[in-house]
User: What shape does this take?
Amino acid sequence: MNSFVQALCSELWAMEPKALQRFIMQLAAFDELAIQAAIEKRIEAGTLQAFVNIQDGEVKGPQLTMINGAAQITIAGPMFKQAPSMFELLGIEATSTNDTRKQIRAAMDDPEVERIQLNIDSPGGTVEGTAALAFDIRKAAKKMPVAVHAPDLMASAAMWIGVQATEITVGETATIGSIGVYTVLHDESEAAKADGVKVHVVSTGPLKGIGVGGAEVTDEQLASVQRAIDALTDRFVKAVAKGRGLSLTDAKALATGEVWIGSDAVAVGLADRVGDESKIFNAPTSAQPEKTQMADDAKLIARCNELTDQVEASSTQNADLRLEAAKLRQENAAKDLAIEAVKTSQITSVINANRDRITPEMLASVQSYAAKCDGIAEFSAFVASLPVQTREDSVATPAADQINADSVGEMTDDQKMVASWLPNGSNLTAADFDTPSEVN
Assistant: This one.
């Protein structure tokens, strides 16, 4: 396997696996002599100079093909952000997502373009560049109808971009789906060891340099690659859900790498209808009534997409606000508990420091008064003003007197004692000494 093919194998792919395997085998079959022969053949055919002119920039800007007001854009073969130039020399069909984005934008800016027709026959390709093209197609679909026709194959990355269109028509035997992402890592450490070679990867960390030829691929490295695959698959699934109007749960159920044929793809929601080219390419659009209807449809589609985006943004914002409010409530409750704990601790400290002034019988009344004070300073001053108690002063009030006092709503003797020490004590009643919560 040459170094170019080996480098391609290590890419992150959103491509139907069997198609990728055939593609890699096709590339691997080319040796230097075959490549040189292909170049000479192109020179004889006069196509190499045209290729060079394109590379040198003599042909500028995307060229759009128009049929009945529809810009025809073809996406065929494996998709790359920028297809390698040697593919052109070898006659290998491939699509550059960068070039396709330029075509999409040119169609959007062309006043003669009424709609865009994406003719897709692709197994997918590299993840790189796919999301950006999907974004441009979705943006175009908000401005005008964008129809996809997939007569034979629309899989993986091609599916990612295709579902952003306003409608999808597939061939009766078309292969549709293969939602997912994968890559291949070759652990050649045992082969290198057999050859007497030990490969050392000197890097900034154990996850830098994954998959270097001859180096062992560790479990930690595999887990890191898997996390990247899962993150990309999550974005792929969300793109399918949004493009096809599916719930995230339903879209995830389709992300198994499975493919569906023709009407089966329609049944699971990945296409709108089964049809042939004649019904799409030759549909008249120049007649004024139909032209007006198309313009109205485009406006309706754009408005629906706009409202959908607004609802999604509003839902996200409301969810964020609810989370923020819940967080603030929790913080306030925690602050209240902290303040109450500090207050209780301070009251307890003052009482413990003045046990010679507060008898056990007075404790409940003193606690009740503490709860009514504006602050610990007021309570401390009050306790400091209490006289030091003798043993005779601390004799408890007889139970009968206590019961009698409570029954008529009068203050107990110890409450009267505390009231007598206060400047406004004559105005206090038994209600002013309600028993507070227990102080530890």
User: Anything to note?
Assistant: The longest strand covers residues 70-76.
